[in-house]
Design goal:
1 helix; single chain; about 45% strand; about 180 residues; eight-stranded antiparallel beta barrel; mainly beta
Length: about 180
Amino acid sequence: MARKGFSAATIAAVALLLLVFLHIAAVQAKVKLGKAKISHLHFYFHDLLVGENVTAVQVASAPTTDNYFTKFGMVRVMDDWLTEGPEGTSKMLGRAQGIYVSASQEKFQLLMATTFVFESGKYNGSTLAMVGKNAVVEQVREMPIVGGSGLFRFARGYALAHTHSIDLKTGNAVVEYNVTVLHY
């Protein structure tokens, strides 16, 4: 009966080649990325559900969504403004594009998947990706920055969100963001 499988020498040779390729890739990545930097960003996020310039719309809900005071199961898509100041007329820095979902039956908590798209200034053409829980009734919420592009390539960090203002009748809100990111 013939033996099946690879010899120890073959496995060792493949493992050695894999280590060499990984080392070469790591060296090339260091050369191309440059030195790590930390950046601090400050902007305002305008989530407008009602009015002339709606920036977030509900696209789905569960049959039981209205049974929950938290609107559990509601899904919204957003293309929110990012501005330098809290006023809607403040300088536009970019957009917050993505989705948020009411993800708790008992608390006002959203699952957010957001890309901050910078369209002016120093970071024009760059993006940051934020994915995480937003406990909207907390004074300050921390959410992870999990990636980025352009000047924020390989970004990781955190965003601190603070509700600047909210209209309880319409749900329109302005949220202040302080973002700290490590990037290359």
